[in-house]
Amino acid sequence: FIGGLQSNKANMLVKGVVPHGKLVVETVNSLKVAKKLDSAMSEFDGKTLEVFVQINTSGEVTKSGVSTEEAVELCQQITKECERVKLKGVMTIGAPGDETCLDELVACRNHIAEQLGIDPKDLEVSMGMSDDFAVAIQKGSTNVRVGSVIFGARDYSNKK
Description:
The chain is α/β, with parallel strands linked by helices. Helices cover 38% and strands 17% of the residues. Strand 1, helix 2 and strand 2 form a beta-alpha-beta unit. The longest helix has 17 residues. The radius of gyration is 16 Å and the shape is globular.
């Protein structure tokens, strides 16, 4: 799942997907959402839900995610307080054309791993979309989101 997830929709998402397959949530940006996901997973004995913490590396107010300064604390809280939610990695939607956002995410992942006492390779990095996935991979991305490369550009003509 990629996109803004309201905490009141976490239960619906988990119950709608987990019985039928695997769910990974890429856009966790608060402990409240993580705890709601954790609670929703309580029905599924022994299963865990993998999440990526969304980090706003561009500082744009139009983008969701925690700041790089808040990221360590949120990751620590998730690993300590959510027994059925596993921190899989970090993700960002950087500013178009600004490669420093990608470098910032890798540096942030490394700092988080250090603070958690784990190998940075144990935390995945999800960054890069159709326009910049090649650069993102060169900079260390382990996951890219390339919808428009596969499905074509979005048609916004019906949007009001």
